[in-house]
Amino acid sequence: MDPTVTGTADDGAVATSRDGAILRLTLERPAQRNSLSHAMIDELVAILTSAASDDSLRAVHIRGGGSDFCAGADWVATNADGRRPRTGDLTRRIPHTANRLVELVHTIQLPVVCTVRGWAVGLGCNLALAADFAVAADDAVLWEPFIGRGFSPDSGSTWLLPRLVGLARARRMLLLGEKVDGTEAFAWGLIHRAVPEPDVDAASDELLDRLASGPTVAIGLAKQAIQYGQHATLPQAMNQELYGVELSCRTADFKEGLAAFRNKRPPEFQGR
């Protein structure tokens, strides 16, 4: 299917296409390393909000057009006119834009895969870290440059990084602004996989095909339980798991999984 493109040349665009049950989103602003304009962020929020209730979808793929993933929010364009924003502008606007985007990627009950090549900076880095799986080129660069630009970290970086790589490494990225390449990011446990740049698309597609052929409801509930467990006690986490088991045991995919086990064959899940 031909991709649908929204936005203007100056604002960038988000190209969307369906590949079976996989929703593919491509950030199209390569001249600015796919830095996200307000229009692109709003469009991503709208697309993912819609995808969350689309029962025909089984996975989401986010990638950058050209040689980079995403250079973060376009702060240069935001401040280009030199006007001082109203007091409280960020606290009113960001929860519904950049923060909402990261939250959606992290919590949507569909598996999300980000393909990372080139630069993944600031919001772009956090977008990849919020995904369930990030497949990166071994020479990709993940960078949290906030302190070096004179302001404190945002878009979930102070929550995501300590949980993924621990406090010591999080401080290196957030307080010292150290860049991490794909190989090191994989060694740290920051991303799912690092491969040579020519192999990034194939590795991502292999993973997406595997996820899109899985038991979609159970995957979504497992994703929810993992997130809940990050701030729960063990008894609370196990109680949350019980609700997931109760729901997933009522799906057609659960019945198929049992039948496949009994008959010693691979399951053919339908995402229902």
From TrEMBL:
<dbReference type="Pfam" id="PF00378">
    <property type="entry name" value="ECH_1"/>
</dbReference>
<comment type="similarity">
    <text>Belongs to the enoyl-CoA hydratase/isomerase family.</text>
</comment>
<dbReference type="InterPro" id="IPR001753">
    <property type="entry name" value="Enoyl-CoA_hydra/iso"/>
</dbReference>
<dbReference type="GO" id="GO:0003824">
    <property type="term" value="F:catalytic activity"/>
</dbReference>
<protein>
    <submittedName>
        <fullName>Enoyl-CoA hydratase</fullName>
    </submittedName>
</protein>
<dbReference type="InterPro" id="IPR014748">
    <property type="entry name" value="Enoyl-CoA_hydra_C"/>
</dbReference>
<dbReference type="InterPro" id="IPR029045">
    <property type="entry name" value="ClpP/crotonase-like_dom_sf"/>
</dbReference>
